[in-house]
Write a structure and sequence with these properties.
Layout lengths: L5 E5 L4 H12 L3 E6 L6 H6 L2 E4 L8 H5 L4 E4 L10 H18 L4 E5 L13 H15 L4 E7 L1 E2 L7 E2 L2 E3 L8 E4 L1 H13 L4 E5 L4 E2 L1 H11 L5 E3 L7 H6 L1 H16 L6 H5 L8 H11 L4
Parallel strand pairs: 1-2, 1-4, 2-3, 4-5, 5-6, 6-11, 7-10, 9-13
Antiparallel strand pairs: 8-9, 10-12
Helix pairs in contact: 1-6, 4-5, 7-11
This protein binds NADP nicotinamide-adenine-dinucleotide phosphate.
């Protein structure tokens, strides 16, 4: 897609979306950021993005958002205060796609997830709804599309950490591929620059278990990280009362059963992105002070 044309980024305040905003601007595109609340707009404006207030679950807010755009990049996530996976990740993305089609947008790049349509992932709402929207996008006739399927975000390693201990549900003995949100944002910009079409799995160079991943980032910061594995079943009872805990339990049960690994070649060969390793990412987070 020609440089200088305008791309709407949905999920622009998120990890992948904000990285995509930076890389699209860096590649010479005009970026319009879809933001739910005005107070989150300042950083995006500082970067050079135009901000439009809207919500993908409210279709009437999307017409003005896509007006005059040639492309859309979507990296939405459901969650508390946002809505459930079906309303945000499926219906919200369908609303965005329909608004884009009506406004004559030519490109739609969607950030999904690795193994979104795996048979064992059907119980996991975030995966099921992504796979559902992938099907909808593949059927769209008037926009060309690319579906990015990133592996496990390196940033996810920060979630289970409490001081020097990581609590990772399940045994997690199968390998996982790791990628930084920054590299997904970089790939999203390349998808526009190179007019990449079709579905692509995105992974960095590391393919290892959670325990090994913590060992690699621990080495980067010269810290020892102890990994404990509470059984997934321990989350089942609280999961009955708190839906997010239930979703998380089903997700970790899925990783336990299927792993989450893929070949890293397409990120380099199709997108021309040389992804950072866990060790390099670890050095960055220790330097920034995010990890003690
Ligand atoms: N974590 C992993 O390892 C992993 C692996 C593969 C794929 N993924 C998927 O990658 C995607 C992006 O992840 P991420 O970490 O970048 O997500 P994130 O940081 O949680 O950001 C999600 C974005 O979606 C926006 N959003 C949510 N509901 C919205 C609505 N109704 N209207 C407009 N915007 C809305 C949020 O806006 P607000 O700031 O206003 O809430 C935020 O900008 C997710 O779908 C995730 O499931 C994750």
């Amino acid at each position: 897609m020609e440089r200088g044309s305008r791309v709407l980024v949905a999920g622009a305040t998120g990890r992948v979306g904000s990285a995509a905003v930076r890389h699209l601007l860096g590649a010479g595109y005009e970026v319009r950021a879809l933001v739910r609340r005005a107070e989150k707009a300042a950083k995006l404006r500082e970067l050079g993005a135009e901000v439009v207030i809207g919500d993908v679950t409210k279709p009437d807010t999307l017409g003005p958002a896509v007006e005059g755009c040639r492309g859309v990049f979507s990296a939405l996530a459901a969650g508390p205060g946002r809505g459930d996976a079906q309303s945000v990740e499926y219906r919200g993305n369908v609303n965005l796609l329909r608004a884009a089609e009506a406004a004559g947008v030519r490109r739609f790049v969607y950030s999904s997830a690795l193994m979104a349509d795996h048979p064992l992932a059907r119980e996991v709402a975030e995966f099921r709804e992504k796979a559902h929207f992938e099907g909808e996008l593949a059927e769209a006739r008037n926009v060309s599309h690319a579906i990015l399927r990133p592996a496990m975000f390196m940033e996810t390693l920060l979630m289970p950490l409490q001081g020097p201990v990581a609590f990772v549900p399940g045994r997690q003995r199968l390998p996982v591929s790791w990628i930084s949100a920054e590299d997904i944002g970089r790939a999203a910009a390349r998808a526009f620059e190179r007019d990449i079409e079709g579905r692509h799995e995105l992974a960095g160079p590391d393919r290892c278990t959670w325990d090994e991943a913590y060992a690699r980032i621990g080495e980067a910061g010269r810290r020892r990280i102890t990994v404990l594995h509470p059984p997934v079943a321990a989350m089942s009872l609280p999961g009955r009362f708190v839906p997010q805990v239930g979703d998380l339990a089903r997700m970790f049960a899925f990783f336990d059963a299927a792993g989450y690994a893929t070949d890293p070649a397409s990120l380099r060969e199709v997108f021309g992105v040389e992804a950072i390793s866990l060790r390099e990412w670890g050095e960055k987070v220790f330097r920034s002070g995010t990890l003690g």
